Amino acid sequence: MPKENAVSKNGVPPHIYFLISAIFHYLGPSFAVLLFSSISVLGVAWFRIATAASFFMIWRRPWPRFFQLTWDQQRIVIGLGIVLGLMNASFYIAIARIPLGTVAAIEFLGPIILAALGVRNLRNVVALLFAAIGVWLLTDVRLEGDPLGFIFAFANCIFFIIYIMLGHRVASDGGSSGIDRLSIAMVVALFTVTPIGINGALPAITSPILLLAALGVGVCSSVIPYVCDQLAMAKLSRSTFSLLLSILPVTATLIGILVLHQFPTILEVIGIFLVASGVLLHQTKKT
Questions:
Q1: 143 alpha carbon, distance to own chain's centre
Q2: What is the pLDDT of residue 142?
Q3: I want to staple 197 with a disulfide (CB 3.0 to 4.6 A). Which of 42, 130, 149, 177 is the partner?
């Protein structure tokens, strides 16, 4: 596991990379709205992975690097790729069947569990409780909907946990090499989702507008966030990174205010305050 540090090698604090990831994490779905109305849920998942994989193949040219890795490193990268593919497919299937807030709340059970495993003092216990309650208020959980949606929501949660664990393993040698390995993993993810998603994506292949929307989904949801995750993971402990993930519902709320003019309720404002308090209270490890 990488040691925690205040800044990255290029002088940028890892929290900045995380914040960029958090912002773009919710810009991607705004492009997905157009796709949802035209192609199937799994088709959207395929487009998201396919455009990201194409971008990484052009940018990083990953395959020569894959054969330079040890067998253990190759297994981690392949595992990460499979998880990325299944995690994205599960997420889209879940939000098509049950409310997004419910899916988000279930998804954040994973990071909260990982953050709890890293708790070492009372201060961090309080920080974790604040963040967990804040996320609960922000996601507006409603335990109703299609049972199959809950199955895929919990599957997404499990894959999210594995993504964080494998992502830290990939990032352990530093941000640049982590990005190279992430590019390989994204290609593996494409092979993973193609059998279940390609048929749903075919109707949009001939539409320039839909292809442009797909490019936006891939870059905003699977390129910028995952690259920034690698740069942040290289310098943050797993428990700290997991706790910081509680910021995501906050960024979603703020984007809703600035872009969609959707203003939060009193409970959501309290949730934002609790999440921010939890992140500020959290005590990181000293190097």
A1: 23
A2: 61
A3: 42
Distance of CA 112 to the CA centre of its chain: 14
Read off the DSSP letter of residue 203.
G
**Separation between Cα atoms, residue 47 and residue 115, nearest integer Å:** 32
68: which 2 tokens?
């330079």
Q: Which pLDDT tens digit goes with each residue over 149-173?
A: 889 988 998 999 899 899 988 887 6
How big, in percent rounded to 5, are the helix, strand and coil portions of the chain? 80, 0, 20
pLDDT digits (tens, 9 = 90+) for 3-27: 444 444 556 777 788 888 878 876 7
Q: Which two tokens stand for residue 27?
A: 């810009």
CA–CA dist 259, 32 (Å, integer): 16
Distance from the Cα of residue 286 to its chain's centroid: 26
Specify burial of residue 284 (Cβ count, 10 A radius: 0-12, 13-18, 19+): middle
Q: Are 46 and 38 in contact (CB under 8 A)?
A: no
CA 217 to centroid of chain Cα atoms: 13
According to DSSP, residue 246 is labeled: G
As a whole number of angstroms, the distance between CA 236 and CA 30 comes to: 29
- How many beta carbons lie within 10 A of that of residue 119, not counting itself? 17
Model-wide pTM > 0.85: no
pLDDT band, residue 87 (cuts 50/70/90): very high
Lowest-confidence range among 70-74, 142-146, 229-233, 268-272?
142-146
**Of residues 93, 89, 104, 96, the one with CA closest to residue 252:** 104
Beta carbons of 244 and 164 less than 8 angstroms apart: no
What distance in Å separates the CA atoms of residue 196 and residue 210, rounded to the nearest whole number? 20
Rg, C-alpha atoms of the chain: 18
| Maximum distance among all Cα pairs of the chain, rounded to whole angstroms | 57
